[in-house]
Amino acid sequence: MAVQRRGNVKSADTSTIEKKIKRGMAQRQASPYRGYSALLLALLCTCALLTWLWSVWTNDIMDTMVSRGEVLTQPRVFMVQCSEDYQKYKHFPGCTPTKCGRAVSDSVATTDEAQILKRIAERGLALGGSDGGASILDLHSGALSMGKKFVNIYSYFSDQIRDIFTEEDFELYRVMRGRIQKVIAETFGLDSSKLFLTKPTFFSRINSTSAKTTHDEYWHPHTDKVTYGSFDYTSLLYLTDYGVDFGGGRFIFMDPNSNRTVEPRAGRVSFFSSGSENLHRVEKVAWGMRYAITVSFTCDPDYAIADPSLP
C-alpha cells in the first residue's frame, strides 16, 4: 500500500511539472506578441502626443472668420487688445490705434472692379514675374519682380508704359484707395484726413512655384508694424476667389489659442491694425493664381506717399 501511495505521488508530481513546463512554453511563445502590442501602443500614444504638441506649437486650430461663400452686407469686425508696439512711435491723436482689431468687408469693391484691377496686375506682371512663387507690382515706386530681382517698370519699359496702363486704370486704383481708407476710418473711429497712404503698397500674384529667393517666402508669420515701422493699418483687396481660382492662400490671423482665417473672395477687403495683436501669415498656395493688392496706411505724415500717376 505504501509503495502504491508513493507511486501516485510521483505521478501527480510529474503531471504538475509537465503543466508548468507547458505553461512556461506558452508564456514564452506569447511574450513576443505582448511585447509587440506594448510597443505598438506606446508608439500610438507617442504619435498622439506629438500631434497634439504640433497643433499647439503651430497654432493649427482653425476658425474661419469669413468664408468665401459668404457675402457680407456689413463689415465683420473682431476687436482685440492693442499691443505695445505703438508706444515705441510718435502718437498721433485721432489716428494712432487705441482700438485694435481686424475686419472684413464685401462692400468696398464690386466683382467687376476687382476683375479690372486683376487685369491691370496681369498686364504689368506679364512683363516680368518672379522665378519663385511670389511676384509684385508697385505702381507707386514702379517696382516689378523680374526673375530673382526687381526692376523699375517705368524706366525699364518706358516706351511701352502707356500701351500697358491707361489713365482709367490709375483712376480706379485711386478710387479703391479712397474707399478702403474710408472704411478703415469708420470701423476704427478715426479722422480719415489724418490717415495717409504709405509704402509698400502693391499688387501681388502668388502661385505654387517653389521659392527661389527670400522674397518668394511669403508664408512666414510676421507683424507689419515690426516689419515696417510706418504701418498703422494694413488692408488687402482680393482679386480672385479661394477654392475657385486657387487653393491654399488663406489669410491667417495667429491668435494665442487658435487661428482665424479669411478666405479670399474677389472684391473682398480685409483690414486690421498693424501691431503684434494681429500677427499673421498667408497659407502656401497649392494651385492656381492668387491676386491681391496690399494697401497700407500710416498716421505719420512724414511717411506718406502720393497716389500713383501714369508717367
TrEMBL record:
InterPro entries associated with the record: OGFOD3 (IPR039210), Oxoglu/Fe-dep_dioxygenase_dom (IPR005123), Pro_4_hyd_alph (IPR006620), Pro_4_hyd_alph_FE2OG_OXY (IPR044862)
Pfam families according to UniProt: 2OG-FeII_Oxy_3 (PF13640)
Entry keyword annotation includes Metal-binding: yes
An example Gene Ontology CC term for this record: membrane
Positions of the Fe2OG dioxygenase domain: 199-300
Keywords linked to the UniProt accession: Dioxygenase, Iron, Membrane, Metal-binding, Oxidoreductase, Transmembrane, Transmembrane helix
Signal sequence residues: none
Residues that span the membrane, as ranges: 35-57
Required co-factors: L-ascorbate
Molecular function terms, GO-annotated: dioxygenase activity; iron ion binding; L-ascorbic acid binding; oxidoreductase activity, acting on paired donors, with incorporation or reduction of molecular oxygen
PANTHER family linked to this entry: 2-OXOGLUTARATE AND IRON-DEPENDENT OXYGENASE DOMAIN-CONTAINING PROTEIN 3 (PTHR14650:SF1), PROLYL HYDROXYLASE-RELATED (PTHR14650)
Protein name, entry field: Fe2OG dioxygenase domain-containing protein
Organism: Ameiurus melas
Source species taxonomy: Eukaryota, Metazoa, Chordata, Craniata, Vertebrata
